Sequence to fold (408 residues):
Amino acid sequence: MKKLEIPVSDADIDELDVSTLMSVVDSKWYTDGKFHSLFKQRLISTTKSRHITLCNSGSSALLLATSACAELYNSKKNGKKYVITCATGFPTTIVPAIQAGFIPYFVDIDRKTLQINHDTVLDLLGNREVAGIIVAHTLGFPFPADLIGESVFEDQFFIEDCSDALGAKIKGFPVGTFSNASTYSFFPAHHITTGEGGAVGTDNGKLHKIIESYNNWGRDCWCKPGESNTCNNRFGHQLGKLPEGYDHKYTFSRLGFNLKMSEFQSALGSSQINRLPEFVEKRQINFLSLYDFLSCYEELDLIDWNYTDDSPSPFGFPITVNEKANFTRNELVHFLENSGIRTRPIFGGNLIRQPMMQEVPYLVAGEMKNSDYVMNNSFWIGCHPKIHVEELEYMKYIFQQFFKSRKM
Fold:
């Protein structure tokens, strides 16, 4: 069979995406404009969040959400210092909490689902020094955010990192609707792309206002670029030690950032999101095709998922080489890579093993045995929409060739 190159992810850009981007070039307005507003409204419709803030990456979205939640819930003033998170994941899920001065409290995963052990989470939420919880829906397969959302106390915050899971649902509701804030990434690897880009969703109007301020240099003003005097009191404020009547557009109430999304990114996102249902359906079809084929190999553990209660939006297809195998994860990965099928580990593996964590204080809820196991034995391959029948058959053929080489 002819060798194919199958990346783990591949952005699907069509002619409408290109023409939409070109319309921004022609408009000569490149910051927050009409496409910015359109993309926000389409995201609100998709995620069912009341408010959306667009920003320049999913990592920035988590920074904004964490900074705003820490302020609104007065976490530091109330003596709260821990943020619960998952030991297996991508660093940016927890790094903003560390940068905000919190201490991560790591929880192990369930090997079957690759998601955080929610029973441990529910126990830890009773610790009055816990400020909140930040967890990702790993590889587009939902963790029980509904149960966690019901258990978070009023003075704690809950942030769902939905970067891998746009389009996924829990009991019919979009992921992200069970928490105080949800974050999204539109990096080219994700379900839709804006090149780089991200978003924060929330139903809380006060939290939204704080997020917007952090996203806009810490401004007290909420005027859009090119607008003035939206509050009809531009020169009527006296804040801090500024002179009375100082221009509200240049009054800064927070140590903020400039993390805004450009009009180019917004335009691409507003076009791409129209195809999200198509993208999600194709990911599910590809996932199921690989699942049906690979489930016959007892040496491979596949993720435990359930379409009845939850509807995943697969970011990738995870595979674990178990104790029955006469080969290692690395041997299978090298065979796939040499055959043109690209692979990735389960992100950062057990994050406490990463060099970045060696000088950082943290707590662990017991031993991270499953996180270590997945770090050593698991990986994922692509199931994105640009994988068609020919590519799926090639992937299956290569797995067959590997197992034949092992006389299995």
